[in-house]
Amino acid sequence: MWFSMKKYGHTLNTMSVFKILYRTFIIFAAGFLLIWFPFVGEKLSSVRIMGVLQRIALAYGLGALLCLIVKKKYLWIVSAVILLGYWALLYFAGGSQPYSLEGNAVLKFDLLVLGENHLYRGFGIPFDPEGLLSTIPAVATVIIGFIAGDIVGTGPANFKKVLRLLFFGLIFTVAGIIWNIWFPVNKPLWTSSYVLYTAGLSFLILGLLYWIIDVLNLKGWTGFFKVFGMNALFIYIVASLWTNIMFIIKMGAEGVSLYSWIYHKLCVPLLGNLNGSLLFALLQVFLMWILVYILYRRKIFIKV
């Protein structure tokens, strides 16, 4: 986001606002349509509204606006207010067990705003791990990412930046672990401690990669990942569609899904259940890579 907004001077203007709103809408719509796909057999009245791309869209939209409105030196304060405010909200608006599956404020808010029929049901009850209320701390995740972009994107590559990234990574990781004592690290609730912990790990990994790739200039091994990165959102959507299609296609007289058929008939006989599962995942990754590699070779980059 820091790099994409650089052409707008990191300021709020007509073009940058249009870009943010347009991208937010497109990503949200893509996520919703992926959940609704194949558009038959399920009424809109029971389709899940939120999801991974929808969370990304809203967090990006709000985070981008804040990053362009607020001066860079105050973004840390904005992030801290968001994370502390979310902690207070969950603690005081929850029940006697404010971080439990049934008693958290995220569930109450999403039930009130979205309704039971539009929530994820993978936890045994209607509860959305990418819900509306829990998008608030995800905005802080976006802001922290913007700050990381500013660190690596301003000026030439040097080891001082590496140390700065590693320093922040260590501070955030330790802070997340300590905060976990009072506010548990929890991904479905996207708790503030989870934001700090994952941001810390991300800074540490980014610092290591920045040192290897940008400072030491060892880039020969990055081609495989670069191909994915040039069409990241597109291949995410294609991979999700392909997974859904594999579940729809039925194989043989037994009528098992193509998904199950590939796993049980091809992967398990070769490597067993555990390693067969790994093989199945790697096959899907390789299939998607072939697709984006073709696009990459033809210089086709699908952007939003």
Note down, in words, how this protein is organized.
Helix content is 65%, strand content 1%. By secondary structure, it is mostly helical. A hairpin with a 4-residue loop joins strand 1 and strand 2 (256-257). The longest helix has 40 residues, at 258-297.
Features of the shown structure:
single chain, 304 residues, mainly alpha, 2 domains, two-stranded antiparallel ribbon, 2 strands
Helix run count:
10
Structurally, how many domains make up the residues?
2
Biggest β-sheet description: 2 strands, antiparallel
Q: Nearest-angstrom radius of gyration?
A: 21 Å
- The tally of beta strands, per DSSP, is 2
Structural class: mainly alpha
Please tell me the overall pLDDT. 96
Silhouette: globular
Order of H and E elements: HHHHHHHHHEEH
**Low-confidence region ranges:** none
- Bin the helical content: 55-70%
Strand order of the largest sheet: 1-2
- Tell me the fraction of residues in β-strands, as a range: under 5%
End-to-end Cα distance: 12 Å
